[in-house]
Amino acid sequence: MLSENLRDCTIVVIEDTPANLRLVEATLRAFGLRQVKGFSSSAEGLAWLQENPWDLLLLDLDMPSPDGFEILQALSGRNRSSRPVLIVTALSDAPSRRRGLELGANDYLCKPVDLPELLLRVGNSLQLSQASQALQRERDNLERKVHERTRQLLDSHQAVVRSLCRAAEFKDSETGNHILRIGESAALLARALGQDEAWVENIRLAAPMHDIGKIGIPDRILGRPGQFSPEERDLMNRHPRIGHEILSDHHGSSMMQMAADIALHHHERWDGSGYPGGLEGEEIPLAARIVALCDVYDALRSERPYKPAWPVAKVQRFILENAGRQFDPQLVEVMSGLFPELERLHAEMVDERRGEQ
Predict the structure, then answer these.
(1) pLDDT band (50, 70, 90) for residue 344
(2) Residue 59 class from Cβ within 10 Å (0-12 exposed, 13-18 middle, 19+ buried)?
(3) How far apart are CA 207 and CA 200, in angstroms?
(4) Are β-strands 35-39 and 107-110 bridged in parallel, bridged antiparallel, or unpaired?
């Protein structure tokens, strides 16, 4: 007899001969199945299958359109393990059997049907269906747990980023939402370049830490208005290496490694005239090239104690004119198509300590 856990499975029977349909339905109910749906109209049966959940289909082949082959084609996208199809037909020739199986049927019975054999095959098919559905539920549950754990790790990363950035704010005059805008604009540019979402999210989190090395620069230099002396400039130019030392961890995440690379290289220039390594062109890591461009754009658009915010047209002209010198020309070309979105970010994330133009 059928086990209790299979009795409420939904069995669909599509058979255009009413007498045969009644016989199969009665046999299945006598077997202990409580949810048996019978259709003598193949069109109605197919419509029901496409709109409702089911566990097993008993399908005739030789019917008015749509015939059994057409129904199999219409159901080709189903999960064959969790929604098996048992063909029950008078078409016993080898080509028909092969075609039915090729179109996705799981099993094949020829009429006249031996009812005990039919029930054995129904029971086996239902066990396959339920096992497959249980496996899928477990897989979905594991995926939910992985997603939740990933979200928790991301929250932890974000908390670390916010803490480090708050620490930097105590040393750096570039406060407010500047560092957050750098993350959002870098992610915007990375996505426009076609980077995958994991990379985009990494740079969103890593970019705000680009100037974390300023923690190691004396206050008398960071807070000084006007031009630096050569000695002061030399001290100031050490902040990329300091930032790299703070963020580097051989056992850290890919995001922290990216943050370390950005901190070290975001003052390099495309033409090789930057610091600290004098790298040129694509020797500079892509993430650092992106952040260097976004940092300059946002800094020029922002008010500082020592300067007013530049007008948008002047900033964009500066960016375009320095393609191939200070900035990666390909990135500049991509950014030029994002100018309206960058200005939207700038307007939505206004600095809290000082209003911006």
Answers:
(1) very high
(2) buried
(3) 11
(4) unpaired
Per-position DSSP letters for 163-181, written without gaps between them: HHHHHHHTT-S--TTHHHH
At residue 86, the 3 state secondary structure works out as strand
* Cβ pair 71, 100 in contact under 8 A: no
pLDDT digits (tens, 9 = 90+) for 310-330: 999 999 999 999 999 999 999
- The SS3 call for residue 49 is helix
- Token code pair at residue 11: 């069995």
Burial letters for 123-154: b for 16+ Cβ neighbours within 10 Å, e otherwise? bebbbbbbebbeeeeeeeeeeeeeeeeeeeee
Helix (H, G, I), strand (E, B) or coil at 89: strand
Burial string for 14-47 (b: 16+ CB within 10 Å, else e) reads bbbeeebbeebbebbeebebeebbbbbebeebbe
Q: Which helix (H) or strand (E) holds 27?
A: helix 18-30
Alpha carbon of residue 103 to chain centroid: 33
pLDDT 10s digits, 3-60: 777 888 999 999 999 999 999 999 999 999 999 999 999 999 999 999 999 999 999 9
Is there a contact between 218 and 168 (Cβ–Cβ < 8 Å)?
no
Q: What share of the chain is helix, strand, coil (3-state, %, to 5)?
A: 60, 10, 35
